[in-house]
Write a structure and sequence with these properties.
Elements (H helix, E strand, L loop, with lengths): L30 E2 L9 E6 L2 E6 L1 H11 L3 H7 L6 E4 L12 E5 L13 H19 L3 E3 L7 E4 L2 E4 L5 E3 L9 H18 L4 H6 L6 H7 L10 H14 L5 H10 L4 H17 L12 H4 L4 H16 L6 E5 L5 H7 L4 E6 L2 H14 L4 E5 L27 E4 L3 H7 L4 H11 L3 E6 L4 H7 L12 H11 E8 L5 E8 L2
Helix pairs in contact: 3-4, 3-9, 6-7, 15-17
């Protein structure tokens, strides 16, 4: 299964999840990728169901140097760089003016750094630096250091921006240092040193955390934590000193001072050592041991496992399944037995981090865990709100699981029950839904913190009425406890 390499709006086969209208057929004309506009030398676009990259004059020479290197085919073979080849598409309009066009293999699902757990960000940063070191060893460098250059195949990061590589110039420093700090190193420092989640910071600022911002956080004795003095305080001071100077003048000064390729390599190696030492041990949270502390009986659990497996198996090997509120991934694993790819969305970043580490140890390539608050999901951000796509813009998936999550949205977050049902229809072409009765201990606990009578319509009969209005129910089952029911359905429209 191949979906999009950088953005969900690429025309794609009807069997694949898409956010573009269903009329966006595989033979649609070229459409430009909203996130690919910052480098005029190359641009990603879509045509004929393919993910393509147009290269200008200088970019063609960079590609020639990259494709002729020793490290490129090796790292493509290891799955660390997106497989790419020269394409010969029949193009019209402005996309026909490119000197050369490349074709990229699609990755299964597009995600963003503000949706990654700590261990995911660290692994992505290490891969980023490893690729840079391999490039420097063969006379190449990289144009920037953005975390958005990477995507995931399950628990394995993969580099996707082939326009990132360029021939190195003598005496020039690594141009991507600042971006690497802002989108990768600073988030890792924030969580490793202070235990603060980095995801809200990155979501609020598409270009990452500024050194001046982080300097205020790492004041006093905190400045002596690993890497902070050099990469935050000194970085900010140097940036302020040269803010009025031109890039050309700074480069000339560096060349005159004897700045060399060897110094760049030493700097990148030191950065890699620092990133490798940064760590965060996920704390114990309420949701970390949910499978052991929840109110399911053994009979409930067995029936639920059987229902979910039976439902997803009946979907005919779907390409993409979303597990909404995945917790520790128990049902994501069940879905993965019958689906091409599963994206597990969970609010608790500690739970996601643990799940990712397990998947990484197993070498799992078909389950992608992401940090996501379903009541406040990732919005469209960046230029014109389209540079990074919202969660819903990346859907609907072929199927969606919403297990033990409805009561948290409807009661815990005060989302009207009709809106929850409409949202489910937008998330998956097929769904498995669990309704937790008000008499269930978990629902009772949530209701105890709310004014009496506030959720009078949170009843199973009302939920079933809403569900049948919006979905064709294909299967249903009440669990032995009598306080939980499962439904499988297909949206009516």
């Amino acid at each position: 299964m191949k979906v999009s390499d950088v953005h969900p709006d690429a025309p794609r086969p009807r069997s694949a999840p898409e956010s573009a209208p269903e009329s966006a057929a595989a033979d649609a004309g070229p459409t430009r990728e909203p996130a690919s506009f910052r480098d005029p030398a190359n641009r990603v676009f879509y045509a004929g169901g393919q993910v393509l990259r147009g290269l200008g004059e200088g970019a063609v020479e960079d590609w020639t140097a990259l494709s002729g290197s020793r490290f490129f085919p090796r790292l493509v073979g290891e799955g660390k760089i997106c497989p790419t080849e020269v394409a010969e598409p029949a193009l019209t309009g402005p996309e026909s003016d490119w000197r050369l066009v490349l074709r990229h293999e699609r990755v299964p699902y597009v995600s963003y750094p503000y949706e990654w757990a700590f261990a995911m960000m660290r692994d992505a940063a290490l891969l980023h630096l490893d690729l840079l070191l391999a490039a420097l060893d063969e006379g190449l460098t990289t144009k920037d250091g953005s975390a958005y250059n990477l995507q995931w195949r399950g628990a394995s990061p993969q580099f996707i921006d082939l326009g990132w590589f360029a021939r190195a110039r003598a005496g020039a420093p690594w141009a991507g240092y600042r971006q690497f700090c802002q989108t990768m190193l600073y988030p890792l420092m924030l969580q490793s040193h202070l235990g603060l989640a980095f995801q809200p910071w990155l979501r609020a600022q598409v270009d990452g955390i500024e050194p001046a911002q982080l300097r205020k956080v790492f004041g006093g004795g905190r400045r002596f934590k690993a890497g902070v003095l050099k990469h935050v305080h000194l970085h900010d001071a140097v940036q302020a000193r040269f803010s009025a100077d031109t890039t050309q003048n700074v480069r000339a000064d560096l060349r005159a001072a004897g700045f060399s390729r060897e110094l760049t390599i030493a700097t990148v190696r030191a950065l890699r050592k620092l990133v490798g030492r940064l760590d965060w041990q996920p704390p114990e949270t309420h949701w970390a041991g949910y499978q052991e502390t929840c109110t399911y009986s053994d009979a409930d659990r067995a029936r639920k496992v059987d229902f979910v497996g039976r439902a997803v198996a009946g979907w005919g090997r779907p390409d993409l399944v979303l597990d909404l509120g995945a917790n520790d991934g128990t049902y994501s694993r069940i879905a993965a037995e019958h689906a091409g790819y599963v994206v597990a969305l969970e609010y608790d970043d500690a739970v996601v981090d643990r799940f990712y580490r397990q998947l990484r140890a197993e070498g799992e390539k078909r389950i992608l865990p992401l940090v996501m608050d379903l009541a406040n999901p990732s919005p469209g951000i960046g230029w014109r709100g389209a540079e990074r796509a919202s969660l819903e813009r990346r859907g609907p998936a072929d199927g969606a699981l919403a297990l033990a999550v409805i009561h948290h949205l409807a009661i815990g977050r005060n989302v009207p029950l009709p809106d929850v049902v409409d949202w489910l229809a937008a998330m998956g072409r097929r769904v498995v839904v669990e309704f937790v009765d008000p008499a269930d201990p978990m629902a009772t606990r949530l209701l105890a913190n709310k004014p009496a009578g506030l959720f009078g319509d949170y009843r199973r009969d009302h939920f079933e009425k809403l569900l049948t209005e919006r979905f064709t129910i294909t299967d249903r089952e009440e669990l032995p406890s009598g306080t939980r029911a499962l439904y499988a359905g297909v949206p009516r429209d």
